[in-house]
């Protein structure tokens, strides 16, 4: 941290806005190490309680009515359902999730809306300046995620929320959110293999880390898990006398003909967990009389509204490209999802395959009443043209993943699942991330010229894809579309089935050009 960075939100230079200055300060807290090595007190979990003392948050957190959620898959969705339900029950909600897609403020939601810049800056500098003043070489500034978790607690305490829903960032036992000593209820979503370099190489080890959020005699819920993982969860629960219950997926019939606000079959599992968490929160906080609950036979109006109006960017989200005029908005449609494990890639592939099929049961999603302004369906009305003109479907993959992920595990699962549903990608496009590792916000955008961008990882992904296509000809591949064969001069590396682009904007421009030049084609990009 340079001495110039600093307090009270005063800009370091006239070129930065107050918000950009805060993001610069936040960026200074990013570290590259992924596992504590035990030699620095700042890496140890107990130091978090020192930070709470510095920020006078100990008592305030103990008074919060918190729902704490860990897991490998579905944490964000479960927390989103939970928040939406309780908000529709009339409670003032605070929701802390990660990661964000565009703006850091997405992580902090008050009553379902991301915190405004004015409040974010006030709370940010209050925490940052106080910690900067009180930390030293022995107790250094908290790292990036720890600071964000502390900031979330400060925001929710100051805003006097009725309920704070806290999503674990990584693991559970040593996660920054786990300073919570007495939550109202805990939840564990589906477990799988992820962050193995930190959490362990077996499902048992991973489950042990997740179960670290269990607290003495505090009720907890989970979904059906692999036997190895469930055994560990039950063992940890028994040690702490935690009443652990396994909840079943939500029965769609209980929604009275409506559909969940978040798309995908797997969301019924997350919704079932959210219902259990909310029901228990209402009971343990003395609000059961306010809401009529009888989960096995019916759902209250508030629960149904919460489940059907929930929205979460980047999870099975459908976005028509607004670059085109409204009558052409369905020519280029993006199907967005943040899947990053083999299991979630399979789920994503099933959703995408069903969503793009003209005659699939999910066709109704393109005609849904537009009564939810946050719904991804606002931007997609039909798979066909507005005037009923049939267009040729051209599925395209637009992909990137972190170098800690294994594309040899991710890409085959995606391709094979799509092929099982009769969907074949005509082209795969690989792009680098928009932001660099050690920056947050608008200043994090790639500023290098195309020739300076390191595309070695994207070339690796492309090689995996081409090998996958070549090794499965006639099984999971289809004829390369004529409209995609030529004119790839914008790409940094072009192969028969794929191309690498220097940035996401360049790839999107290429897609828009192809769409304009092929009026009879509907490009469906996931």
Q: Mind explaining what this structure looks like?
A:
With 526 residues, the chain is α/β, with parallel strands linked by helices. Helix 5 packs across helix 6. It has 15 helices and 15 strands. The protein folds into 2 domains: 271 residues, Mur-like, catalytic domain (UDP-N-acetylmuramoyl-L-alanine:D-glutamate ligase); 152 residues, Protein-Tyrosine Phosphatase, Chain A, CATH 3.90.190. Helix content is 35%, strand content 11%. The N terminus is likely disordered. Helix 13 links the parallel strand 11 and strand 12. The protein starts with 17 loop residues before the first helix and ends with a strand. It has an 8-stranded mixed sheet, sandwiched between helices. A 7-stranded mixed sheet has the order 9-10-15-11-12-14-13, sandwiched between helices.
Which segments are poorly predicted (pLDDT under 50) over 5 or more consecutive residues?
1-7, 34-42, 358-389, 443-449
- The CATH homologous superfamily of the largest domain is termed Mur-like, catalytic domain
Globular, elongated, flat, extended or rod-shaped: what is the shape? globular
Helix content: 25-40%
* H/E element order: HHHEHEEEHHEEHHEHEHHEEHEHEHEEHE
Strand content: 5-15%
CATH class of the largest domain: Alpha Beta
Topology, number of strands: 15
Enzyme class: ligase
Protein name: Folylpolyglutamate synthase
Keywords: ATP-binding, Ligase, Magnesium, Metal-binding, Nucleotide-binding, One-carbon metabolism
GO molecular function: ATP binding; metal ion binding; tetrahydrofolylpolyglutamate synthase activity
């Amino acid at each position: 941290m340079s001495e110039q960075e600093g307090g009270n939100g005063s800009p370091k230079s006239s070129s930065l806005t107050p918000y950009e200055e805060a993001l610069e300060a936040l960026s200074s807290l990013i570290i590259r190490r992924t596992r504590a090595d035990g030699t620095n007190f700042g890496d140890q979990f107990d130091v978090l309680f020192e930070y709470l003392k510095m920020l006078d948050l100990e008592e305030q957190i103990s008074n919060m009515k918190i729902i704490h959620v860990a897991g490998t898959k579905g944490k964000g969705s479960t927390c989103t359902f939970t928040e939406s339900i309780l908000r529709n029950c009339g409670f003032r909600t605070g929701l802390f999730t990660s990661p964000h897609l565009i703006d850091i403020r997405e992580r902090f939601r008050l009553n379902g809306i991301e915190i405004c810049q004015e409040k974010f800056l006030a709370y940010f500098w209050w925490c940052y300046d106080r910690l900067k003043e009180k930390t030293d070489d022995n107790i250094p500034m908290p790292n990036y995620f720890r600071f964000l978790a502390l900031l979330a607690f400060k925001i929710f305490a100051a805003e006097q929320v009725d309920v704070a829903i806290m999503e674990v960032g990584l693991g559970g036992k040593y996660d920054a959110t786990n300073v919570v000593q007495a939550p109202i209820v805990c939840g564990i979503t589906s477990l799988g293999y992820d962050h193995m370099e930190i959490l362990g190489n077996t499902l048992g080890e991973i489950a042990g880390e997740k179960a670290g959020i269990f607290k003495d005699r505090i009720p907890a819920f989970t979904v059906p898990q692999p036997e190895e993982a469930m055994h560990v969860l039950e063992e940890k629960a028994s040690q702490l006398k935690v009443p652990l219950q396994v909840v079943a997926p939500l029965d769609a019939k209980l929604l009275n003909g409506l559909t969940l606000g978040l798309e995908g079959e797997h969301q019924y599992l997350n919704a079932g967990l959210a219902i259990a968490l909310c029901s228990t929160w209402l009971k343990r906080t003395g609000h059961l009389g306010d809401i009529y609950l009888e989960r096995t036979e019916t759902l209250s109006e508030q629960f149904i509204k919460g489940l059907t109006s929930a929205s979460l960017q980047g999870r099975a989200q459908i976005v028509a490209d607004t670059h085109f005029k409204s009558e052409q908005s369905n020519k280029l449609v993006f199907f967005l999802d943040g899947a990053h494990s083999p299991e979630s890639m399979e789920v994503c592939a099933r959703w995408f395959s069903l969503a793009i099929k003209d005659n699939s049961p999910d066709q109704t999603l393109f005609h849904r009443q537009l009564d939810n302004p946050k719904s991804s369906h606002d931007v997609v009305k039909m798979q066909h043209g507005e005037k009923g003109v049939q267009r040729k479907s051209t599925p395209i993959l637009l992909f990137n993943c972190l170098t800690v992920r294994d594309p040899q595990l991710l890409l085959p699962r995606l391709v094979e699942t799509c092929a099982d549903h009769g969907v074949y990608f005509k082209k795969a496009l690989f792009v680098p991330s928009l932001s660099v590792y050690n920056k947050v916000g608008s200043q994090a955008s790639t500023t290098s010229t195309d020739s300076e961008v390191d595309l070695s990882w994207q070339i690796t992904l492309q090689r995996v894809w081409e090998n996958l296509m070549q090794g499965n000809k006639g099984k999971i591949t289809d004829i390369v579309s004529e409209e995609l064969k030529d004119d790839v001069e914008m790409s940094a590396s072009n192969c028969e089935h794929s191309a690498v682009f220097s940035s996401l904007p360049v790839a999107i421009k290429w897609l828009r050009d192809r769409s304009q030049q092929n009026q009879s084609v509907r490009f469906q990009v996931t």
